[in-house]
């Protein structure tokens, strides 16, 4: 039985600008056929094992003809596959969705169109330019700028666009900007009509160049401003001066590496994104249950006598997650903890415990082992029993001090950190291109593994890391980073993910524009 093809709009670049339906379709597809302008980060959403085909075109160089693309879609569907044809922006706006749909129809293959957020509207919006506005513009036209001048002139009714109340958006028009500006002026648009070019809109690389019909061609030439860009012509461009918002976000245009384990990267990635930055996940550790039978037996033995402990101290979110996973598997009821006072090293660990219905009674001022010790010191009595579920590489201070206070401490390993190198080559490439603004370390092992992994691939470690800011969650991680030959540039006062992201934003600030000095006036 034939499969089905979904012609899906990926949105203009920011991977969150795909539709809910588009993402659903992408996640369930057996094959993904994608373009240059579809965000590469969306591909990570594809099902593991889904086939991926790049059919992107580069300016002046077609890697696959439209007929070949149609043929590929037909073949995959005939193999019974569910196929996502992922296109930048909206598939029906200069996206050749019509032609692909016709080809599918001719072969009796069912298809659906999942609309997307078109760059024609979204890219100006991300530059602070609404395409319509009650005072300035009552309509907008989206036109191609791609054709040869003579053909453009037969396709575009320039006279119709001469009215000052009309916004015109050109896609694929950078190389024709001179002709476009001339035609608009010779058909009556005033030479001081503002024009904006926005390149790689909605992505970390977004750049905006603003001028007037009279000046823009020269500016584009001078700046060597490259496609892909959206061109906006009309009075609405003036609004950018006040409404520019994306380029003013605290981490706009900054690419930040996240080195913590994949399962935990999400929170920091979300923070960075919310601040306008682009998170790049490069997990250098993976977490797993211990497989050493002795360690497992010790853990299970502790779980079997949970009701004997006076204290249970959690020193990480991972510790909590792995502890409860094991408890569930062993069939240990949570009420076995009824006697114990529960303490957590910091707010994230407390949150993790709250999810299991446990209220944390002790939380330190300083979010590390020493702080936890200070918080509970006045309350522990000699002879009390303390359970310490932790990682295999945990530091020894806490148990040693507790023993000095006369406690019977049971340490159990609930998880292990193992190094992970997936995607390392791409990170070295990014470093080589100078495309990384900062790297974040949320534990000593992330700093150590990162340095090891990169050093193994290049002998220019120090040189490549020189322009990169290093952000460490706390002083101990910072110390390890320094020992591994990296300056710890940023260490927040509080050892939390939030504070780390905030400190990064304060230190880095938005990437300055190459063309568009802040406060510059456009008229
Ligand atoms: N279907 C797409 C348009 C495809 S034509 C859509 O609806 O957005 C390709 C042109 O779209 C490019 O030449 C450029 O003009 C524009 N474009 C697409 N994504 C863009 C982006 N992120 N930034 C700037 N221009 C973009």
Provide a brief overview of the structure:
The protein has 523 residues and is α/β, with parallel strands linked by helices. It contains 19 helices and 21 strands. Helix 9 (262-274) packs across helix 19 (497-508), helix 13 (369-376) runs parallel beside helix 14 (397-404) and helix 16 packs parallel to helix 18.
Strand content: 15-25%
Instruction: Tell me about the largest β-sheet.
Output: 5 strands, parallel
* Cα end-to-end separation: 61 Å
Query: Which spans of ≥5 residues are poorly predicted at pLDDT below 50?
Result: 518-523
Mean pLDDT: 92
**General shape:** elongated
Q: Which class do the helix and strand fractions yield?
A: alpha/beta
Number of strands: 21
Q: Helical stretch count?
A: 19
Q: What is the gyration radius calculated from CA atoms?
A: 28 Å
**Helix proportion range:** 25-40%
Strand order of the largest sheet: 3-2-6-1-7
- What small molecules does the structure contain? S-adenosyl-L-homocysteine
Task: Give an account of the 3D structure.
- The chain has 523 residues and is α/β, with parallel strands linked by helices.
- Helix 9 packs across helix 19.
- Strands 3-2-6-1-7 form a 5-stranded parallel beta sheet, sandwiched between helices. A 5-stranded mixed beta sheet has the order 8-9-12-10-11, with helices on both faces. A 5-stranded mixed beta sheet has the order 15-19-18-16-17.
- The chain contains 19 helices and 21 strands.
- The chain is elongated.
- Helix 14 links the parallel strand 18 and strand 19.
- The site of S-adenosyl-L-homocysteine has 26 residues, from helix 4, strand 10 and strand 12.
